[in-house]
Task: structure prediction
Amino acid sequence: MSDPKDFLTTQTGTLLEKESEDRFWLNMGPQHPSTHGVFRILLETEGEIVKNVVPIIGYLHRGVEKISENRDWMGALPLTDRMDYLGAMSNNMALTLPVEELMELEVPRRAQWLRVLALETNRLASHLLFYGTLGLDLGALTPFFFAFRQREIAQYLLELLSGQRITFNYIRYGGVRLDITTPIEREFRKFITGFRPAYEEMWNLVEGNEIFRTRIIGVGESTPELLIKHGVTGPILRASGVKRDLRKDRPFAAYDEFDFDVITHDKGDTYSRWYCRYKEMGESLKIIEQCLDGMPDGPHIKKMPFFFKPPPGEIYSVTDTPRGDLGVYIVSDGSRFPYRVRYRAPSFCNLSVLSELLYGTGIGDVIAILGSFDPVFGEVDR
Amino acid sequence: MKLLEWRVRRVPVGKISLILGILAFVLFATWKIWALTGYWSLEPYFDSLRNLFLTLRDKFGGPGEPPMGLYNTLIITLKLLGILLVLLLIGAYSTLMERKILAFMQDRLGPTRVGPRGILQPIADGLKLLQKECIVPLGADRNFHYLAPVICFIPALMGAVLIPFGKGLMPVDLNVGILYFFALGAFGELGIFLAAWGSNNKYSAIAGFRAVAQLVSYEIPMAFCIMSIVLLSGSLKIGEIINAQIEGATAYGGLGFPIWFIVPQFLGFLIFFLSAVAETNRTPFDLAEAESELVSGFHTEYTGLRWAFFFLAEYVNIFIGASIITAMYLGGYAGPELPFLGETLSSVVWFCLKVFLIFFTIVWLRGTLPRLRVDQLMMLCWKRLIPIAMANFLLTGIFVFANTVRLTPQLWPVHLENSAYTSIAAIVVILILMFGLAWFFAKDLLKPMKERDV
Amino acid sequence: MLHDKKLFLKKLKPFFNDYAEIRGQLIFILDRSKILECLSFLKNDKDLKFNMLHDLTCNQKAKGLEVVYQLHSVDNSYWVTLKSLIPFESLVAPSATSVFIAADWHEREAFDMFGIKFNDHPDLRRILLPDDWEGHPLKKEYPLGGFKDIKPIWAYEEAEDLQNLPDREILDSSIINPDSDDKLKVIES
Result:
């Protein structure tokens, strides 16, 4: 066991507090069962109490931005699926949006609605995964199976819609790749009727569980000021009482045509984050229902050439993903290839607040808080 | 490939020292025999062996048996092996049972592939684990690492002598039965801590500290519950405790009426059950394993058969714990005689049924509850369970005192007719009192724990 | 509405050299020396309240690297972009960490990918790439495959090729050292 202290003293000199004999460094990850991917945290603990946190990322860095610069615009799109692999639809959306804005493309209304349908189904699947893995992190096995049973169906629906299970590549420049058909719509409706009782059951499984509540209430409390200072967005920010949702504030796709609530909770602790994500599933379900009921007619995509050249310019556009704001900054020099594509990943920014929240908590809480942040490391490392 | 040709050449220090040690012992023993008897002989060895077998015969064969022969020795050895095998099978099949129950709770099927409905799964798992390599980390303390699973496993096996499988089917009714159970629990802790310390892994070390703190703490409420039971039954013997529940009367005085101790000791039952779950490191008290926090806790660095030993020890311990709970609170093998089965067999059936009930509840807990945090765990023990257990002990003392007074009219302050009515009235009053207080405290026990700091 | 153009132009008058509006998005171009001043003004101004640094990145131009700040006001839902050109001759920008702590990781990433130095950054080291990485990959002159010809291990067909593996530092002292003369020797930690 090589002591991370040597590594730390050379690398992060300023971060280290004074050495103490009661403390020792605990290396968590990158191969730890509950760091949700290849995340590594060095914890300096005093007994079980965390006194110093050094997060280390980059184990899944694939250079998405660099590769994008060396492909054409269409070729850059599938790479986004590989970033946030749990909410791949919203990543597709995030890249198509600025390109369409730059080219001033008119996207058909049906395409926008189909986008919303796909995005919300994907959000549902992502939050279901969060629900299950938070249970696993706390040592409860059953929520995981309850959530994954539903997630499996959601994933199946997305497969029907896009032809893929994880890397959808469904939302394209100018619309969506495939149109929805009546049998698929029927499957969606079947899912909604089946999901409601399971949704109630999932609520009872946590809300009626004393130990579950004790483990998450009051753990990792955060204030809106702290979160905004660190650039934290999404359900985590909403859980601390800030009513901010880009689907309302800066609507993309067809979100301005839908009726849904922005879920907030006032405590900002792990329970609030759980609550927000749980309730957002209900809102997603509402949006999916509205989508199915009022799906407009028309083409599902605006015909585009495979190679196209957006006009020179730069755009920073932001979309809401299950994890927070995904900002995409694109620079076009008027050629077939992107000059620069930059992804501002929500998990990346969310994780930066982690070291402040973890101070003074126990090792069990570290896992709970990290689980409640629901990071995806494909996105953090890109 | 060249990469594969590098070998680690290591001097087998452990083996050499073991062989040298055995050689030295044999030489020393031979010299000692020579010094004592004046001639070279292996007779003393045989003598000691014979003594061992005689003791065993006294225990198992009972009086009136024909003298020890090779045949009887063989029989006893076979019996011992049989018990060992049964115990191992219980350990192995508990895993299958747990997986099936959990699968039922989570809308799954559980293991189905090996044998019909997966019935051979534990055996396949065992065979797989047998073949696996036992890896010892380079920085580990090899001796501790080797010893720990053994130290964990042996007390689990030793506990088997306490299990009252049925009427007259108790292997040994020790006169310190319950204390023995306690002592074995302490042994298991040692094994866990040795495993944690010997692995040279920080996760294991933390798990070891957690395990020791947890197990030592949870022995206290357990001890208080046991003392209450001992007060009621007047004996430490498991057989006597069961008898006290079936017949009511004991030499000490006892209750004077037959009742399962879960009724007057409901609170004690709850506390003992929780402590027993904590003692066996099961969810929600599985902090020493905590696979999401500490990877695998104290057995992170174990593979193959050594890991299997921990696993088996855990399940055998659950079985023993469930048996002790059954014996102490649920009347052991007591139950009405079943048709076509006969007295002994139906008592076995009742015992197994009750043990399965307890086991099912333990698995149920695992299916529903997440893990507690360390401070919450300790708080539950020291702030809730121990005070309540102490109160329960005190109440039981008062109860037993009142009961003794009831049974001896000479001590009554006012002379009353010792009729059935007064007896029944006294019993009812006392039971209601016990139940009321029990519920009062139990409500407190179930209140949410809000305080975070210990 | 992403911004209030009139208000922004009035408030930011003393800071920017030039501004542009692309598809309803305001972009201000400032000098390197005025970045910090402007950021803290935007953060503390009562009408604007840009309390979140949403993104910080770089973009390579002909003469230098452009540092791009995306600012966001959570209360007013305003968005604005600030840009500043850092010439190649002196790739040093002021660190925004003193104003926005969120800039910490973003600046580390910009340093990692572009090699731009941020003055007064508390802990400026690589964040995504290994510490011993050579070069800064998102620069245009950095080839897609990297500078070094490093093949994955399965790409070495011949056993002899394994001898010619590129040198790598052995970080864990408890493994067998393949370069030592005595190949059977175990290095004790």
